Amino acid sequence: MTQTEAIRVAVPRKGRPLEAVLERVADVGETRQPSDRAQSGDGRDPEHVADEIISTLRHEKAITKGNAEPGADVYQRLATYSDLDDDYAPEYTLLRDQREGMPRRIVFDSLTVDVAGVPVQFVGREEPFRALRTHEFALGFDSADLVLEEVVELEPEGVESIADVNARIDPMNTDVRVVSGLGDTVYHTLMARPEILPPGADLDREFVAGYEGPLCISPRYERLVEAVLGTRPLEGVTFAYPDDEREEEAAIADVGLGVYLTMTGSTAREHGLILGEHLFPSETVLMENVVEAADLDAAERVCEALSTSPHETEIAV
Predict the structure, then answer these.
(1) What is the mean pLDDT of the chain?
(2) Which residues 6+ apart lie within 8 Å of 118 measured at CB?
(3) pLDDT on residue 5
(4) In this structure, are 298 and 259 located in the same domain?
(5) Domain that includes residue 253, residue range
(6) pLDDT tens digits, one per residue of 76-127
């Protein structure tokens, strides 16, 4: 029987996680030929559509931040971006941004693309992970950090990779499981002033296990750090938090030891810090609500296709 009803996949509305999803869509989506209602010439190429959405949202972010001048008001721009005659055209919506004045910001709403012969509707949500937890979706993409912050159980030993995460999820807590990562990786990384390390010591988990004193982290990552490092190594540690107006790296330099996200580590080095062990990858992950996706062959085919990439983080289930 031909699959006609779209599989719905929850995705972030904006930012790097959404871009990572769109890049995956560009890799695995199938070009759809124009319908009778939308004669666009050579069909909709997923790579072109993904690039178009990314470019549009980056432009809108620049407008919201005051770094670009709008050519029209926000409602005119929204109408320009929209094509309601084509079910496979991207759609956008408006949200109130948290910046001063709470300006209206154009964000992603939805896009339908054929994947593995199945129409897949990627639907923007502010909290995709929670949408899966409440059984609104069978599949979705969100930050791996949220899984650690909300549902991974704290144990004496830490989590070292995304592949460890599913084993730490209590099935009585949630039906959501991590399928794979998209490889858009930055890391929660140990960093410290060189003088706190004994001669020849490495800045790693073992060092933290023997350390007693303050550890500087962002307040929102307290539970994540406990899950990643484990409760036993943190027995002699007290958490310190940066002031709202200071860079995290500057606060860590004052404290001496801390954990923060790094890509190149250049800002940390500017503050005289050395970089230690990459504790945990912070990346966008594909998740599945195993109850909602059960016995749905089309959902499983889509899940497998979206998980296939030479750059992904594999999950051993």
Answers:
(1) 88
(2) 3, 6, 7, 298, 301, 302
(3) 80
(4) no
(5) 186-282
(6) 999 999 888 887 889 999 988 776 767 788 999 999 999 999 999 999 999 9
pTM of the predicted model, to two decimals? 0.87
In the Cβ-directed half-sphere of 303, how many Cα atoms lie within 13 Å? 23
Q: With 0-12 CB in 10 A as exposed, 13-18 as middle and 19+ as buried, what is 172?
A: exposed
Residue 179 contacts residue 287 (beta carbons within 8 Å): yes
Task: Give 37's pLDDT tier (boundaries 50, 70, 90).
Answer: very low
Q: Any idea which of 78-87, 170-179, 263-272, 306-315 has the lowest mean pLDDT?
A: 306-315
* pLDDT for res 311: 47
Q: Does one domain contain both 254 and 295?
A: no
User: SS3 breakdown of the chain: % helix, strand, coil, rounded to 5?
Assistant: 30, 30, 40
Distance of CA 13 to the CA centre of its chain: 11
Biggest CA pair distance of the chain: 72
234 φ, ψ (degrees, to nearest 5):
-95, 10
Q: Between the CA of residue 12 and those of 9, 137, 157, 207, what are the distances in Å? A: 10, 13, 31, 36
For 161-208, the DSSP string reads: SGGGTGGGB-TTT-SEEEEEE-S--EEEEEEE-GGGSPTT--SSHHHH
Is 59 within the bounds of a domain? Answer: yes
pLDDT band at 26 (very low <50, low <70, confident <90, very high): very high
Kindly state the tokens that stand for 169: 């999820």
Residues 57, 199, single domain; the answer is: no
